[in-house]
Automatic annotation (TrEMBL):
<dbReference type="InterPro" id="IPR003848">
    <property type="entry name" value="DUF218"/>
</dbReference>
<protein>
    <submittedName>
        <fullName>Protein SanA, affects membrane permeability for vancomycin</fullName>
    </submittedName>
</protein>
<feature type="domain" description="DUF218">
    <location>
        <begin position="55"/>
        <end position="196"/>
    </location>
</feature>
<dbReference type="InterPro" id="IPR014729">
    <property type="entry name" value="Rossmann-like_a/b/a_fold"/>
</dbReference>
<dbReference type="GO" id="GO:0005886">
    <property type="term" value="C:plasma membrane"/>
</dbReference>
<dbReference type="Pfam" id="PF02698">
    <property type="entry name" value="DUF218"/>
</dbReference>
<dbReference type="InterPro" id="IPR051599">
    <property type="entry name" value="Cell_Envelope_Assoc"/>
</dbReference>
Length: 218
């Protein structure tokens, strides 16, 4: 049995190495395009304000300190209050659990703030479960089912809007977003958009939440 000359062996190894490098570079290029396209969609939806009428206005939770909403949460509550006063819905759903040792949940702190600012207690509903976005949206969906509500106007931060809306739609709700106009800016904004895009891709593939913390946002 004849064998190729030894001089041919490095050529074959070299060609294999070239194809391996091309495969890796191609995979990296595809991954970059997918992440970039997803990040663009995060940015695109962040600019949308779908403040149409809905069965409920949903305020996604953020940090609270012994019943006092953090600046991020207060911004969401002020926006939800504006929507409520504009007649976009007769019901506001506050969302979010608590950390160990907390006296209040995020939902409770939000409800207290809204009532103190003139919203009748009968119009505010709490969904106190959910330590991440997906669990929060599922809690909202369960509450909506009990009240025969089908549509939601979701209030969160701009860069969080697409993922919130997608998760709510996957739970069977007709979901719209009306984001606050606060949130990270500059380099921090870019980093947050990319991380939010990665979280969205994770959700698409795994159907699970990969929530982002940092920059004062949940």
């Amino acid at each position: 049995m004849s064998h190729p000359p030894e001089s041919a062996q490095p050529g074959r190894r070299g060609r294999a190495a070239v194809w391996a490098r091309r495969t890796v570079l191609g995979a990296l290029l595809v991954a970059s395009l997918v992440l970039g396209g997803t990040a663009f969609r995060v940015w695109q939806v962040a600019l949308v304000d779908q403040r149409h009428s809905a069965d409920m206005i949903v305020v996604l939770g953020a940090a609270q300190y012994n019943g006092d909403p953090s600046p991020v949460l207060r911004g969401r509550l002020e926006h939800a209050l504006e929507l409520y006063r504009d007649g976009r819905s007769e019901h506001i759903v506050t969302v979010g659990g608590n950390q160990r040792g907390d006296n209040y949940t995020e939902a409770q702190a939000s409800r207290i703030w809204l009532v103190e600012h003139g919203v009748p207690e009968r119009d505010v509903f709490e969904a106190e479960f959910g330590s991440d976005t997906l669990r929060s949206i599922r809690a909202v969906s369960e509450l909506a089912g009990r009240h025969d509500w089908n549509s939601a106007l979701i209030v969160s931060d701009p860069w969080h809007s697409w993922r919130c809306r997608t998760m709510a739609e996957d739970q069977g709700l007709r979901a719209m977003v009306s984001p606050t106009r606060s949130g990270p800016t500059g380099e921090v904004r870019t980093a947050y958009i990319l991380r939010e895009a990665a979280a969205m891709l994770f959700y698409r593939v795994m159907h699970a939440s990969a929530d982002i913390t940092g920059y004062g946002l949940d």
